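--- STAGE predict ---
source: upstream dedup step, 1 unique chain passed
mode: sequence only
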Amino acid sequence: MAEKIAIIGDAPLATGFALAGVPDSFVVEKGKEFEDTLQKVISDPQYGIVIVNQSFMHDIDWRLKKRIGNMAHPVVIGVPSFSGESDDGEGISALIKRALGFDVSKK
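--- STAGE serialize ---
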């Protein structure tokens, strides 16, 4: 069974990925609704990649941050907001390396 991609965030993020063909999008508000949805999705084994609004990650509970930081599956990727502003965070290459155990960009 192929693993799915989930999108969790604001309407522009979800709409953009829906237009790109990703059907599992959850439009949520920042805060408790985001946290609850994120916990539900990362606990579901059908998802291999979870894409979230990067700015939503700042205010989540420290225990959830620690859980996400320690798990290799699913990979949680924060993307910048619609404005294009990016926060400091772990790059996609580092996330993939953590999930797979090796650096796919090295030959």
